[in-house]
Amino acid sequence: MAVIVWVVLIMTVLYLMQGFVYSRFGLKSVTYSRTFSTPRLFAGQTVWMHEKIANRKRLPLPWLRVESLLPAQLVFTHREVGLSINRGDQLQNHASLFSIPAYTEIVRKHEIVCPHRGKYRITSHTLTLGNLVGITGKSVTHPANCEIIVYPRVKGMSEFPLDARKYLQSVRSMNSPLMEDHYHVAGIRPYRQGDSFRMVNWNATAKSGELLVHKRESMQDNDLTIILNAELQNATHNMRMMAEDFEEALSYAASAAQYIISGGGKIGFIYNGATEGNAGMIFRVPVSSGAAHMDRLLEAMAGFQPVTTLGLSYLLEQLITERTRGLNYLLISAFVDQKQEQLIRQLRSQGNTVQLMLLAKGGGA
Amino acid sequence: MDDAIARSSTMIRAVRRVGIEWLLWLPIWLLLTANMGVYGKFGMAVAVAFFFALGLGLHRMTVLWRRLTMIAIGGMLIGAGVIWFSNDLLAVTWMGILLWRGRYQKLTHLHYCLGFGICCAVLIVTSQSEAWADYRLMFILLALLWIIIWFMALNRGLVDDAGLHNGIVTRPVRQANRKYILVFLAAGMLIIAMTASYGQQLLTPKQVVNPNNSWIDPDRFIQPPQSMDKPEWMEGIEQPGKRWLFWDILFWVLLVVVICGTLWFIRFLWINRVWTWQGLLNSIRKWFLRENRPEKLPYLEESRSLRKEKKKGRFESLFRKHNRELEWERLSNPEKVRRLYEEAVLTGIEQGYTFKASDTPSETLDALEQWQTGGKAHNNEKKATYWSWLLQVHLSLLHLYEKAKYSPHEITSQDVGMLKEIDTDRKGNR
After folding, report:
1. Cβ neighbours for A122, distance < 8 A, ≥ 6 positions apart
2. Judged by CB atoms within 8 Å, which residues 5-44 of A form the interface with B?
3. How does pLDDT run across A105-144, given as a tens digit for each residue?
4. Digit-coded pLDDT (tens) for B156-165
5. What does DSSP assign to residue A35?
6. CA of A145 to nearest chain B CA: how many angstroms apart?
7. What is the per-residue pLDDT across B110-147, written as a single tens digit (0 to 9) for each?
8. For B127-236, where are the alpha helices, taking DSSP H only?
9. Which of A11, A64, A86 to mutate to test the interface with B (most CBs of B within 10 A)?
10. What is the ipTM of this complex?
């Protein structure tokens, strides 16, 4: 009887001791990080998510569970076995279980497909430790700063409707962009947003009282400003565009921008919807060229939300009042009503070209 | 075909479950059948298996029918026990318990805990009589076996819980946890083995020998134990020292079965010797490959040791001097000169000299001397040795260092030896 009590006593003491050691020192010198193989990619591409965990002490960790909430839009390619993922509409709970010997670093690489555009962040992870017996011990939550930006899917020119494709090709193949910096001045024109102040013709400005800049042949027609309409509903025609169609519109916008920039042209962008971090304001970027500009545009597009901040009619009226001339506009929208058609005609009559790209069938007035 | 396989696997699982249940109750069976003959023992063993299998079978019925049937059988058992087997009422009750336990289709760690508890209970009971002395070791070993299985099953269940029952527990994780729990148990067993006698002495109640409740050492004053009378329920128990007929029969039956099986296997091998040997070899190869085959995981995993990054502890520092001497032997002559220069400057820096990276070696050594003569250096005995050494070797060290660093000329071992001797003398004087 005494021996049995002694056995139970010893085992209890041992159990308590190891439990104390693991709760006190278990998570000491344990580091965990989660990174993506590339921080930016286009929708539909795959990326590797790296989980790196290191135990820099003598005490081995029998099991250590790492849980984190990931955006549900990140889809694990091999999720049939060995992965604990509970998906919701917005978030999914991802858990990994490790057994880490002393002074060991383990790197796990998960292949993830990003089918949807967006900016995805992982803000925290929870580490839970098990002791020698296997009983769940200490649990801590650490903040994390892991972000991946998924750009809209880029289409090939063959996927564009014929008229839009012709228009884009004509814009890109107009006067050589190499001639943009030519010193010959062909005339004067009103100042446009994005023009350098070096181009201002001060004499003409002083005479006319309006800010005028030197007009160069090669610069006026090779620019394209994309107007993306965020309105998904048309009360006049009782029509509604789905979120997938909006993504399609964004994809067209991104593709057109990339096509023009890759040809050496300049791109401006106007979006009358909400962007991440700038709710209530329209997104407007002056025309500019170069890969860096394209990256900025794509990053902004990743944060576009299908929420209208300014109606298309008001936006077009605003553009008309700016009295711009010689600009090329590509208007991507689901619907256009009679008033908007009227405004588009007015914009054209000011000396601009406007190409309408309607996504919904029968979306015209 | 699939149905047949599923049915056979269910049968095998059920048979295994009955076998384990029988092993759980083995000490009770031994205890209750101690005064029975061979047929009685055999009959009781069969009854144990039968009632538990019946309980398992009842589980296939609907809840209502199962409960009704169980109550009916239980009632019949109690009735039969009261009317016909009043002497064996304990055994009859046990059968009822076995019938009830049929509800546990799957074994969990609690069942192994029950096995351990049964062994402990039987040990306590049998410790009352010296007639069971030979059996105690078996009960202890069985209890140890159950405690190991209990903890392993507990660990397995806990690791599954840790994996949220979602299949994230990989084979390496499971194996590692099994290893850790075995280490824990081994440590526990070792401590128990080393301290059991002390614990027994500590926990045995000491006898009160005087009315004033004063405790005294039992080893000195307690009288040797008197022989105890057998309890009533153990009356008629045979002396369990001699071999039972049942074990003899079982032994011979098993021997015959083993011989027949061996003969059959040899004949089988001889008839199909080519195919069989190839099959055997293939099976063995497959088995090894299966063991080494990596688990199919939905991710890639790499692990590396961080021991190289580990900080050197006190233990390692004991060998550092030895390693340093080995390193010195491996250096070339110019490297040795540079090492001596480096050590000289480092010693000065340790004493407070501010090193300027823009100074040439000549300027550095001059600055060191000036700094010392300016009285800024510490003037204890240890430091004095260093400064006297530096003054002694200043020129030769500088010459050799410049030669080693900037010129293609060779440095002889004699030159290094001269510098090293002076340096050794300095270190010896510390």
Report:
1. A34, A68, A69, A70, A71, A144, A146, A147
2. 5-7, 9-11, 14, 18
3. 999 999 999 999 999 999 899 999 999 999 888 899 998 8
4. 999 988 887 7
5. E
6. 22
7. 999 999 999 888 888 888 777 777 777 788 888 888 98
8. 133-162, 171-203, 218-221
9. A11
10. 0.71
